[in-house]
Amino acid sequence: MAAGYTSFFKYERLPEPLLRFHMRRKYVNPRTGLSRAGPYDAYKHKCDDVRVGLVTGTSISGLAEKFMQHLKNGHGYYKGFCNVFKVNDFIFDNEMKKEINDKDNDVLSNIENAYFELAEKLPDKSSIIIILNDETINRNYVKIKAIRFKYSKKTIRLQLIKRSTLEKALKDSMMLDFTLFNVATAIYAKLGGTPWILDQQLIPAGVFIGIAFTRPKIVAFNNKAKEIFYYGILTVYNKYGRYIDMSVRGIKIELSKNLKIRGTKGLYIPKSHMVEMLKQVIGTYFPPVVIIHKSARFHIDEKEAVKQVLGSRGIDYALIHIESSNPYRGYGEDIYGKTVVRGDLILDTELNNRAILFTTGCTQSDYGIQKRGRPGTPRPLELEVEENTTPYSVEDFAKQVFGLTKLDWNTTDLEVRMPITIKYARRVAALASYLTAYSGITDIRDLM
């Protein structure tokens, strides 16, 4: 390095967060932890009988049933639902299976009718797996997920699987093990279980809030054009690292079309709505610290609301803009195929409020760093701390975001890009118009 050279950036590698499983055993990889220890709260569900329904297309009925048998009895590294999750029984039979024509023009009605029929037979907190062709799921994902909110007698959650995923899994042993772990973990979570928690606390006590938006839709009302959009809120309550509670809410906003908002970059929560939301959150959790993640920059209305509600009550807060669409790319060492490692962090030492965090790339497993097996160049997250009254630094916030990528119980993959705060805020925003029966508030397990 030349004399007098000044670096404006600092590099470090964050270690992959450890997860805690049954009997307080710790592992980096969710599949390793579930296989060797079992889910974190196995003691709560050891007497449970887990009943599952199946809705599938007639053309793939045989393949779907074969997958269900593997889900129950096991395959390869996945040793079967009861062995892995330590429940009393896993029950699936022909009475819990409905075949539909998924190429029918009225396919949504077919799915809904099949769901309602199975839901009547299943006990509370059961799941229905829906396996259909890719086009049907891609085109109707949100509407299919929303069917769950039309049935209020019991909590019967949905798990969607595409035909292409099913066929690939049944042709590849490693892919099948991976898919079985993913689906089984989601089912366990949806019955109310906690597959794993972070071993180290994110903060001693406090709340993380994620905010994301849908794209505005133009509608006509009383001969006037309005733009309607929904925003999603995910609240993660962390108490001394021992208790995680996650709830979501979706809210509708109407704006004059004259504002000409395009996409989601310029969207924000009006001050009155933001004040109301924050009062609800602190009224429920009484947190000493509130950290807010947003997929767009914070607006002055949002900042004023935060100061009014949190600042006036002496509650420390931080506003973190998490930008996933950025021009940055990273390349690593030759030994890892010139691919960065998940956890690589670049800090802006000049501004002290900005960082580049890689949450995809080569992974730090329980057996050391593993080369990346998928194509493409990892895309990082750009973190910008817009306001901060907490004692935490931008490095601390990066560690928190990194940890929150590990609390997604809908996958056992190590390479998860987005923290759950943003990922599920986006999902609830998409589902917000269907949440009226729940006063706009539901559990994160409904979104998996």
TrEMBL record:
Alphabetized GO MF terms: nucleic acid binding
Ranges of residues in domain Piwi: 303-437
Highest taxon listed in the record's lineage: Archaea
InterPro entries: Piwi (IPR003165), RNaseH-like_sf (IPR012337), RNaseH_sf (IPR036397)
Gene3D superfamilies, per the entry: 3.40.50.2300, Ribonuclease H-like superfamily/Ribonuclease H
Descriptive protein name: Piwi domain-containing protein
Protein source organism: Thermoproteota archaeon
